[in-house]
Amino acid sequence: MSFKRVALTALLLASVSACGGQNDQAQQAQQQAGPPPVGIITVQPQAVTLTTTLPGRTSPYETSEVRPQVNGLIVERLFREGDQVRRGQPLFRVDQQPYIAAVASARAALARARAAIASSAALQRRYGELVKINAIARQEYENAITSAQQAQADVAAQQAALRSAQIDLERTTVRAPISGRIGRALATTGALVTSGQTTALTTIQRLDPIYVDVPQSSADLLRLRQSIAAGDLSRGGGAARVRLRLEDGSVYPVEGRLQFTDVSVDPATGTQTIRAIFDNPRGLLLPGMYVRAELVEGTQGDGILVPQRAVQRSERGEPTVMVVGQGNKVEQRTLKADRTIGENWLVTSGLKAGDRVIVEGGGGMLRPGMPVAPKPWNPNAKPAGQGGQPGTPTGQAPQGNQAQAK
């Protein structure tokens, strides 16, 4: 038994010696090969257009619920559901016979009032001559004047009644109050309708242009205003631009513009509604569609961009990068980066102009203080080495904040 133990111990010692020899050989080979090559980029400030992507809903530019303004039976529908209608176009016709009769009656009453005014005016003239010679009492002359004035007032009242009857007759033809796309008819021929009823006959929506309503956090809007006021962002002239991404992921070909921001904050959600307006000549956007709006916040003139593959996460979850410092030795930097620009991070602190950031290389064995051989990184070249290199991104951008290099 003692012989076997001695043999086993000798075998283990030989294995350890062999491994140590291999490691020494690897270290010697690495020292002979020199510092490992790494691909770097030299960061420089550049103009960056910041955007925010938020969900929203489309809403019509104008909406009108068509209701009757007179009582009666619908005798005809004059449009086709889903068509484009013009303002003033006839939509429904209500039975006109009662209103034609009312107009005729008002005309007759007006004629009677006009005849009465002629008689009272003649009586006033005769009494005026007689009162001068004291042939009649003064009171009778004043009564004649009052009768003439009442006759004139009756004429005015009958003129107004005739105009009212004519308006009701015109309203028997229900017309489109706005131009737009008309929906389905909610009343059919033969239906009894009343003036001011709660149920609409149909609805018309103007869809060109069209609104997009987007809720945004009031805290984000406050931060944006403070950045603009401090000069960190520039908005340029004109209205803020808005791009739109549809439900199927496609980009709407027409760029919109910011219309206004609601003046109050919803206390339940802490958001303000932003309204943008888009031209919609082909009618591609319909009310109620879910979209994602990319709001252009402004341009940051001194933005620093770092490829996502160059960023790692520390044990505390902080974003870090490896940079080539003095003497071509590796240094680790902790960054502050809270949004992405395509395949890059927008760095707000931790780097300065001229820093050489390692994007790839080193075989995943880079450590602070390690000498390296830097060379410019070619993003189009096939990456050398294996996975787990320093350039592999491990973090994701917060949802809703994005930016775009300008």
At CATH level 3, the topology of the largest domain is: conserved putative lor/sdh protein from methanococcus maripaludis s2 fold
| Overall SS class | alpha+beta
Shape designation: elongated
CATH class of the largest domain: Mainly Beta
Biggest sheet statistics: 11 strands, mixed
The helix-strand sequence is HEEEEEHHEEEEHEEEEEEEEEEEE
* CA radius of gyration: 43 Å
Number of helices: 4
User: How many domains is the backbone divided into?
Assistant: 4
Distance between the termini: 79 Å
* Nearest-integer average pLDDT: 80
Portion of residues within helices: 25-40%
Strand content: 25-35%
CATH architecture of the largest domain: Beta Barrel
What low-confidence regions span 5 or more consecutive residues with pLDDT below 50?
6-10, 16-21, 385-406
E-strand count? 21
GO biological process, one term: response to antibiotic
Domain Multidrug resistance protein MdtA-like barrel-sandwich hybrid: 63-205
Domain Multidrug resistance protein MdtA-like beta-barrel: 209-298
Signal peptide: 1-20
